[in-house]
Amino acid sequence: MAGAAVPRAVGYVALPAPARDPNAAQSRLSAGQITDHMAPLVAMSDEPIPFTPASGDATALRRAFGRFGTGVTVVTTQTPRGPLGMTANSFASVSLDPALVLWSPAISSKRHDSFVAAASFCIHVLAADQEALAQHFATQGHDFSPFDWTKGPGGAPTFAGALAQFHCDTFAVHPAGDHSLILGHVRHIAMRDDGAAGLMFDQGRYGQFTPRD
Fold it and tell me: For the whole prediction, is pTM greater than 0.70?
């Protein structure tokens, strides 16, 4: 976003940018974990540019991954140091029976080891009006003071207003390159049923889905 006008795409509309430094960088996708410091978008040809991961162009690979628009989650857990949160767009449902979900934090994150060691956690699927929550936990994880939260069924911090909350016990953790795959066994669910729009993330921009007429 970075305060710049964003061209409209079919089925997706960018939300107005919050007040911020116009020179600030965009949010960055780290293959499943949303952080910051993504280079501004630039106009490109509609012709695909072929390359291989072995080329060493991590920026191009990150941009290619970022072409897949997703929803946005905030994952929380309770640690010996207190509550911990992280913004992630790598959430996926895995199984109905048993009810399993997954997400993938980057090994380079200072929060990675705490989430890998956690016995339980909560995944919040964010509503379109919860961008501030996503932005906050994209850059740090220990400061919960700006938001009201309660202790969830499994002990993880829980925020109101999310479209869905999945309270999980850690089912398995698998190494996956420079990330870890954390599978959660869903034990409790809370879900809004009011048709509210979800927060979306596409090419470093937050927005919301707009259905076709």
Answer: yes
